[in-house]
Design brief:
The chain is α/β, with parallel strands linked by helices and 454 residues long. 41% of the residues lie in helices and 15% in strands.
C-alpha cells in the first residue's frame, strides 16, 4: 500500500521516467516534499518581519535555500533575520532540511519542483551532485559561491572511552588504544559522521590516519544524523562523532562525552561548508546571485564581531531555527571549549568559528585551492571511482564548479576594502597539525606524503 501511495503521489508531480531516473532515495524525498511538505519546511520566526528593498535590476526577487542547524548555516539565518539579504532586494526563503540526504534530493528537484535552489553544503557534495555521483546518475550542475565558515567543528568522544584520553594527536595521547578497544570489546571502535564521503567524514578519517589508525580497518564508520548523536552517545551506538557545533559542545556540556579534537587543531583556518546554488539559477539570475553574496558577506561580517555573539546565539537558539539551548550556542560561538578527557577550559576566538576575519585573509572567499582539497581527499579514499580518479579530473571538476568572479563583484559593490579582496585563486600552501603540507600546485606530493590511504 505504501508503494502505491508513493507512485500515486509522485505521478502528479513528475513523469514516470523522472521517477525511475532518480531511484528510491530521491523518490522518497519527492514523497516528503511534494505530498507531506517536509522536507523542506519553511522556517519563520517570531521577530519583526523584514521589508524587502525593491531592486528592479534583479532578475528575480526570491531564492529558496536549505540549511542544516549547525554553525555553518548561521550566516544564512542571520542574513534573513537581520535583513542583510532584504537590503539588497532579495527574499531568501530558508528551509530547514531533515538531513543532508534530503538537502541533496531537494536541490535535484529545484524550487520549481517543490525543492530548493541551493544552500549550505558539505564538500564535495555540490561537485558530486553536478557529476551525478551521489544522485543516481542525474547530473544537476551546481556553482560554489562562497565559504560559509571556517573551523567550528569537532570530534566528540563518548565518556565510555574517557580512559583512551583521545586527543588531536592520537600517536602521543592514545598509542595502541584502538587495538586494545577491539580486543576488549570484541568489536571495532565506532566513529560516526552525518553524511558519507563529505567533509565531516573526511575530518574523522584525516584525524585517525594522522594518528596511525587506518579508518577502513581499525574502526567501523557510521552515518548518523547530527540530532541523533546525543542519544547515540548515551546508548553506545558510537564512541566518536564528527560534526559541526553546537553538537560537539552540547555533548560535552551535557556530560555525555568530551571534545577529543577540534578541526581547528587539525588544520587552522581550514575550509568548511560552502554556499552553493544550482548553476541554472545562477546563469538565469547573475545579478540576483551577486545580491545574495552581498547579503551573505554583510551577515558574515556581523557574525564575526564579538559584541554580536550573544544576539546571534539568541536568534539561532529559537525553536524555529536550531532549537538548541542558548548557553550551548553562546559557548560555541564564543569558542568556549572544554578540551580533552580532562575537560580543560579553553577560550580562543582564533580557534573557534570564523565567519570573516582570519590570519589567512577573508573566510568567505571561495578559493579554488581550498575547494580542490576536498576532491583530492576523495581521490585518497577512492570515494567516487569512475567519476573522480585522477588529479586532472579533480581540477576539471573544481574549475567548472567554483565561481570566484561573482564573489569579487559582490565584495566590491558592498564596499569590502580592495586589500581584503583576494587577487588569485589560491591561498597558497597549507600545513596540518601532523606536519603534512598541501600545496595546491602539487597535489600529488600531498597524496604521496600521506602514509595511510585506500
Amino acid at each position: 500500500m505504501l508503494f502505491i501511495a508513493l507512485i500515486s503521489c509522485n505521478s502528479m508531480l513528475q513523469p514516470p521516467r523522472f521517477i525511475s531516473l532518480l531511484g528510491g532515495a530521491l523518490a522518497t524525498s519527492i514523497l516528503l516534499s511534494g505530498c507531506l511538505g517536509n522536507p523542506p519546511s519553511r522556517t519563520t520566526t517570531d521577530s519583526k518581519p523584514v521589508s524587502i528593498v525593491a531592486n528592479p535590476n534583479l532578475e528575480t526577487q526570491t531564492i529558496s535555500l536549505g540549511f542544516i542547524p549547525i554553525l555553518e548555516a548561521a550566516p544564512l539565518v542571520i542574513g534573513v533575520e537581520k535583513g542583510f539579504f532584504a537590503k539588497h532586494g532579495l527574499a531568501v526563503n530558508l528551509s530547514k532540511q531533515a538531513s543532508w540526504g534530503a538537502a541533496r534530493d531537494n536541490v535535484v528537484l529545484g524550487s520549481g519542483g517543490g525543492g530548493i535552489d541551493g544552500g549550505q553544503w558539505q564538500l564535495p557534495m555540490p561537485q558530486m551532485i553536478s557529476e551525478g555521483a551521489i544522485t543516481n546518475g542525474k547530473k544537476v550542475p551546481m556553482v560554489i559561491l562562497a565559504m560559509l565558515m571556517s573551523q567550528g567543528n569537532g570530534i566528540a568522544a563518548s565518556n565510555s572511552v574517557k580512559n583512551g584520553n583521545l586527543s588531536v594527536d592520537l600517536k602521543t595521547s592514545s598509542p595502541g588504544f584502538f587495538d586494545q578497544f577491539s580486543q576488549k570489546q570484541g568489536r571495532k571502535f565506532k566513529a560516526a559522521y552525518t553524511f558519507p564521503k563529505a567533509n565531516q567524514e573526511i575530518w574523522i578519517r584525516y584525524w585517525l590516519a594522522a594518528g596511525g589508525v587506518n579508518p577502513d580497518q581499525a574502526v567501523e564508520l557510521l552515518k548518523v544524523p547530527a540530532p541523533e548523536t546525543l542519544q547515540g552517545m548515551k546508548n553506545g551506538t558510537m564512541e566518536a562523532f564528527s560534526t559541526g557545533d553546537p553538537w560537539p559542545t552540547r555533548i560535552s556540556k551535557d556530560n555525555i562525552g568530551y571534545l577529543a579534537a577540534t578541526t581547528a587543531q587539525i588544520w587552522k583556518v581550514h575550509p568548511e561548508e560552502y554556499l552553493a546554488v544550482r548553476a541554472d539559477w545562477v546563469d538565469k539570475n547573475p545579478k540576483a546571485a551577486v545580491a545574495l553574496l552581498k547579503g551573505l558577506i554583510e551577515a558574515q561580517m556581523w557574525l564575526d564581531k564579538p559584541e554580536n555573539k550573544d544576539e546571534a546565539a539568541t536568534i539561532l537558539s529559537s525553536r524555529k531555527w536550531y532549537n538548541v539551548p542558548l548557553p550551548v550556542l553562546q559557548a560555541s560561538l564564543k569558542s568556549q571549549y572544554k578540551i580533552g578527557a580532562s575537560g580543560t577550559p579553553e577560550t580562543n576566538l582564533t580557534m573557534g568559528p570564523l565567519y570573516w576575519n582570519s590570519d589567512r585573509g577573508v573566510i568567505s572567499y571561495p578559493y579554488k585551492s581550498l575547494t580542490l582539497w576536498f576532491l583530492i581527499e576523495s581521490i585518497r579514499w577512492k570515494f567516487f571511482p569512475g567519476t573522480l580518479d585522477t588529479i586532472e579530473q579533480a581540477r576539471a571538476i573544481n574549475d567548472k564548479g567554483t565561481r570566484e568572479d561573482l564573489w569579487r563583484q559582490a565584495a566590491k559593490e558592498v564596499g569590502v576594502p580592495e586589500k581584503d579582496i583576494p587577487k588569485g585563486t589560491s591561498r597558497g600552501k597549507e600545513t596540518f597539525f601532523d606536519g603534512i603540507v598541501y600545496d595546491p600546485e602539487n597535489p600529488q606530493a600531498y597524496l604521496s606524503a600521506l602514509k595511510i590511504k585506500k
